[in-house]
């Protein structure tokens, strides 16, 4: 049976509320979840999730879902190649492992909240701090060749 939702970490409700309601950085919890997922994945931050509120997958855009599937595929590929059992067939690897997505979002939310915490009481300051953080990542040097060399196919 296909998964119909992703879970948010129950211990992070106050963080979602602070980012969405208090700081007004995101229109929806789905938007905060996706920002946390991107931040978690780009910073390699994962955290085990304590089941909490769910976000229905139908709320996510097609682009959001494709990004989630890309992360799941990359993680499953790396995990498959790190296992010493050579008999594992690629068809055994599922692309429905939303636990990975939930863990990156939870880890990313912790990190994102920590980066912005001192600005969250004032929406304008929070928005400026968030934009500064995004600009910092936008200006970060990214070398495609380094990424290719990290792939397990070499």
From TrEMBL:
Protein name (record): Dnd system-associated protein 4
Organism phylogeny: Bacteria, Bacillati, Bacillota, Bacilli, Bacillales
